[in-house]
Design a protein that fits this description.
Structural class: alpha/beta
Strand order of the largest sheet: 3-2-1-4-5
CATH class: Alpha Beta
CATH architecture: 3-Layer(aba) Sandwich
Shape: globular
Radius of gyration: 14 Å
Length: 135
């Protein structure tokens, strides 16, 4: 199982993003390996807002119709929200988001060790980032 983060989804959709080629290669590798891909509704909301603002509605359609259909979307419930909120406040880091903290918690809950992400916070929290050598 691999967790999918906003940073990877955005890089996959934006051909001008510095991580686009890597994201594309990693995405193809994950699909070829028939990896189970998991994300959260928080990541979906964050990514849709970012993509809509920066890339427009055609990119949003691609995200919703072509990319997210290949993933299992887990919904953040009240308990997970409270755990993420507590983790965010305990960390006290300006650049760490509530979405990140919810993602880390769901990864721990599901025993997911790897993230398809370009956000170093995953590595800082002990998760492995997907890389081309693994695929």
């Amino acid at each position: 199982m691999t967790f999918v983060d906003t940073s990877a989804l955005y890089a996959l959709l934006d051909g001008t993003d510095r991580n686009h080629a890597t994201a594309r290669n990693q995405w193809i590798g994950l699909l070829d390996a028939e990896e189970t891909l998991v994300t959260t509704n928080y990541v979906v909301v964050e990514t849709v807002a970012l993509v809509q603002n920066r890339l427009g509605m055609d990119a949003v359609r691609t995200l919703l119709d072509d990319i997210l259909d290949l993933m299992e979307i887990r919904f953040v419930d009240a308990d997970l929200y409270r755990a993420a909120e507590a983790a965010l406040l305990a960390a006290g880091q300006r650049r760490l988001s509530l979405v990140d903290c919810a993602s880390f918690q769901i990864m721990r809950d599901l025993g997911i060790a790897a993230a398809f992400a370009f956000d170093r916070h995953y590595k800082d929290r002990g998760f492995r980032l997907v890389d081309d050598s693994r695929l």
